[in-house]
């Protein structure tokens, strides 16, 4: 199609989807009133209690859907977090006598939100690309396996949520659906790429599903103030999705749970694993829930060996993130746990180099192939694409300038080979990845750690378009994607302008290029009130242990435990 006509079609498709969403919302008058006392009572209950009430018939799943439908529409009005509105279909599924939703399942009647990438029958799965508009006629003809599992468990998909075009950003903006904003401060990102989920959950949604290839369920939980778990590959189903990077396996993307509370996150994860997801998705390991491991690490008397990662050696945590980590360290130490200094862990800059090269081994061609003429691209992804397209001699001159004129060995090392890799070079990167994983396994064994606690990111939420500068500041999460370790994020505190100022004499000029891009947007005055989280990390396939230790962390924090946003107070 000629460029001009391609652009016109892009604009038509974006207008169509936004109008379709607006019309659906406008028609849902029953979901747009104020919250009633009954709504407030429903929102106060954990999902386990709601499931029990649905099972015994004291609460109807339709009434639960009605309450959470109100939450979703109000949250969307505040943050633009919703893409596809499934509420009319959700009600029909519940009313259908054939019961496509199993109301005897472990998630009976619980509304679940889904990242826009998840395939729901009868709806588009745009991934933020206008070229995907209308694909309900092909990929969306029926529910994907993940949605079938959720319905068989009794969950009710009710909305899909916003994300960034390319999926390679800690922001969530695209031309099809617009910009999603942080529920605490509209000038900031809710995170990405599962940012719409995080915004909805922070404001009152209950459980959701996102994906994570470099931190995409963990950064949003940290930025917006909710809970998430990055499962290891093969623990959570991932069939029945669309993506911007099909075929990318150097750093595997995983689908994983998110929730408003830690109790709901644990119950949700346990319920899905209990559904034998390997019978729905051949990529899932036939590994039942390890209840004995969860019980062992949740037991109050068990003393944990907790390693504290104070820096990744590339970007030191900002004052707010350092304070949150210290709050957890102090609480765990007071609770009797053993705090372990890490000594000399494997070089984490090397991890960032390997992971970045593997993730973009195609030279950014795949995510770009779906983008139409004139379609907006996230500024971080645009920078990666620009570097990948530089002619080799010019890239080498740029590398020399960065390394020897700017004297920035960190950024120089990342950009030197930022281009499409040959098959041989890709194999060599996988070889390096496996050698690096071995280093970490041996180092962890030597320290005999139970878990690590780390910042989830060097800074709290970035302002809109901040990924232009902070695109490579993702090491605290990306590391554990490369290692395929289980990692969860829980909110701990908020930025405090009185406590979290940069030290006197701080200078951006003294930082490497990655750190400079991150700190360029750190401003404790403007960020005041934004959430700040902590990451709890286990080894591969240790979801039960990580969730149990997250509970121990919250128990240790006691009265300092994070206070969630309450959308009913904004009504």
From TrEMBL:
Coiled coil: none annotated. Gene3D superfamilies: Amidase signature (AS) domain. Pfam families: Amidase. Keywords: Hydrolase. It catalyses: a monocarboxylic acid amide + H2O = a monocarboxylate + NH4(+). Its EC number is 3.5.1.4. InterPro entries: Amidase_dom, AS_sf. Residues 69-547 form the Amidase domain. Substrate binds at residues 167, 193, 213-216. This is amidase. It comes from Podospora appendiculata.
């Amino acid at each position: 199609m000629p460029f001009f006509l391609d652009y016109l079609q892009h604009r038509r498709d974006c207008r169509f989807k936004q109008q379709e969403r607006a019309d659906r919302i406008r028609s849902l008058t029953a979901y747009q009133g104020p919250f009633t006392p009954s709504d407030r009572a429903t929102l106060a209950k954990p999902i386990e209690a709601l499931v029990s009430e649905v099972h015994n018939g004291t609460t109807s799943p339709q009434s639960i859907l009605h309450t959470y439908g109100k939450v979703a529409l109000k949250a969307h009005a505040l943050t633009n977090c919703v893409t596809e509105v499934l509420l009319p279909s959700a009600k029909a599924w519940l009313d259908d006598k054939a019961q496509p939703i199993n109301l005897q399942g472990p998630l009976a009647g619980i509304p679940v939100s889904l990242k826009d990438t998840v395939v729901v029958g009868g709806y588009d799965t745009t991934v933020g690309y206008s070229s995907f508009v209308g694909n309900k006629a092909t990929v969306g003809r029926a529910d994907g396996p993940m949605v079938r599992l959720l319905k068989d468990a009794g969950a009710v998909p009710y909305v899909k949520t916003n994300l960034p075009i390319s999926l390679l950003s800690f922001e969530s903006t695209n031309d099809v659906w617009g910009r999603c904003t942080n529920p605490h401060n509209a000038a900031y990102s809710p995170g990405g790429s599962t940012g719409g989920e995080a915004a909805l959950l922070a404001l009152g949604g209950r459980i959701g599903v996102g994906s994570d290839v470099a931190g995409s369920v963990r950064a949003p939980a940290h930025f917006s103030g909710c809970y998430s778990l990055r499962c290891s590959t093969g623990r959570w189903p991932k069939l029945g999705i669309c993506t911007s990077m099909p075929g990318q396996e150097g750093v595997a993307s995983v689908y994983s749970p998110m929730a408003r509370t830690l109790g709901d996150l644990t119950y949700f994860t346990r319920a899905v694993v209990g559904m034998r997801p390997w019978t729905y998705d051949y990529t899932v390991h036939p590994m039942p829930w390890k209840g004995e491991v969860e019980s062992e690490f949740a037991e109050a008397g068990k003393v944990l060996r907790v390693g504290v990662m104070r820096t990744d050696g590339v970007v030191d945590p900002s004052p707010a993130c350092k304070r949150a980590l210290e709050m957890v360290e102090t609480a765990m130490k007071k609770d009797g746990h053993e705090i372990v200094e890490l000594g000399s862990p494997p070089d984490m800059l090397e991890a960032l180099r390997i992971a970045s090269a593997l993730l973009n081994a195609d030279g950014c061609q795949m995510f770009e192939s779906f983008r139409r003429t004139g379609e907006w691209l996230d500024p971080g992804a645009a920078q990666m694409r620009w570097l990948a397209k530089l002619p080799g001699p010019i890239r080498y001159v740029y590398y020399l300038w960065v390394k020897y004129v700017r004297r920035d060995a960190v950024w120089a090392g990342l950009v030197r080979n930022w281009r499409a890799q040959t098959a041989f070079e890709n194999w060599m990167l996988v070889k390096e990845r496996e050698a690096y994983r071995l280093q970490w396994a041996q180092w962890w064994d030597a320290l005999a750690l139970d878990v690590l606690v780390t910042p989830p990111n060097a800074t709290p939420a970035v302002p809109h378009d901040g990924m232009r500068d902070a695109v490579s500041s993702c090491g605290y999460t990306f590391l554990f994607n490369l290692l395929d370790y289980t990692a969860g994020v829980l909110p701990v505190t908020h930025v405090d302008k009185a406590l979290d100022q940069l030290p006197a004499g701080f200078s951006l000029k003294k930082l490497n290029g990655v750190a400079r891009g991150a700190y360029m947007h750190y401003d404790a005055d403007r960020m005041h009130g934004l959430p700040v989280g902590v990451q709890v990390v286990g080894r591969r396939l240790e979801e039960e242990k990580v969730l149990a230790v997250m509970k121990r962390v919250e128990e240790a924090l006691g009265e300092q435990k994070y206070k969630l946003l309450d959308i009913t107070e904004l009504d």
